[in-house]
Amino acid sequence: MEKALELVDNALDKGEEIYSLGHMLHNSNEINRLDKKGLKTISTEDFPSIKRGKVVLRAHGEPPSTFEKASLHDIQLIDATCPIVQRLQKKIHSLHLKIDRQKEQIVIFGKKNHPETIGLLGQTGNEAILITDPGEFSKVNPEKKTYLFSQTTMDPDQYALLEENLQKRVELEKGEELVSECSICSQMKRRKPLLREFVKDYDLVLFISGRNSSNGNMLFSYAKSFNGNIFLIEHKNEIQSSWLKGAKSIGISGATSTPAWQLTEVKEHLLSITPG
């Protein structure tokens, strides 16, 4: 994400005309900041009307159809896809070309309509089975060898539960092999245990995230299970004075899409409104 933002900021600072294919990230403050600098948000439906400028692809990645459509309309792309997502896309695409579809299947654990999931499914011509919840394991045919992958920002505990459900079904029905590759970003794997210990240390925690961020909502809900006095905010001005009463220590955290400048902004705001 930092790479994508840096590329866009640098291009806008040079006065280039830059378009973003969908919102760069699920953070309204950062979106507004980029909009003010001149970033224009579009969809692939707008490609025919773009006569100049560059289109940046977000860290989430895109399906092959996006590149094909851009080429058709002679659009210059800035590919800011996360390297981890790029490697995963290539791996899934390569596997899709090799497997015997009568005997093998690809399963992707991800959020429906999330841009990264759309990109991953696109690597299989949308033939892969999408599972959004561990309880949906019955969608997978146990008589076929299964290759299991995940959107990189999914909950690792939920992935482990899905993996367990699928393996139990394979053993129960004497099905074919389950090949599981936990493609969740290592940052996400580390985040939950670190966040759990972090929130326990404070009387009050402010969690900064876009309210439409699936990653942010997941982490916030998880953190709240260990510290009930935690509030999700998108902007420093949402902080209520009543939250601060009796709080001798305040922790500040955020989602993976929360920029460092926003964490600092909230910290400085707190210092300006709290005594001592």
What does this structure look like?
The chain is α/β, with parallel strands linked by helices. It folds into three domains: 2-81, Rossmann fold (3-Layer(aba) Sandwich); 84-184, 3-Layer(aba) Sandwich (Cobalt-precorrin-4 Transmethylase, domain 1); 187-273, 3-Layer(aba) Sandwich (Cobalt-precorrin-4 Transmethylase, domain 1). The protein has ten helices and eleven strands. The protein has helices at 2-13, 28-37, 64-72, 83-98, 115-122, 156-172, 186-200, 214-224, 241-244, 260-273; strands at residues 18-21, 40-42, 54-57, 76-79, 104-109, 129-131, 145-150, 178-180, 204-208, 230-233, 250-254. The strands form three sheets. A four-stranded parallel sheet has the order 2-1-3-4, sandwiched between helices. Helix 2 (28-37) links the parallel strand 1 and strand 2 (40-42). Helix 7 runs parallel beside helix 8 (214-224). The longest helix is centred in the middle third of the chain and has 17 residues, at 156-172. It is flat, with a radius of gyration of 21 Å.
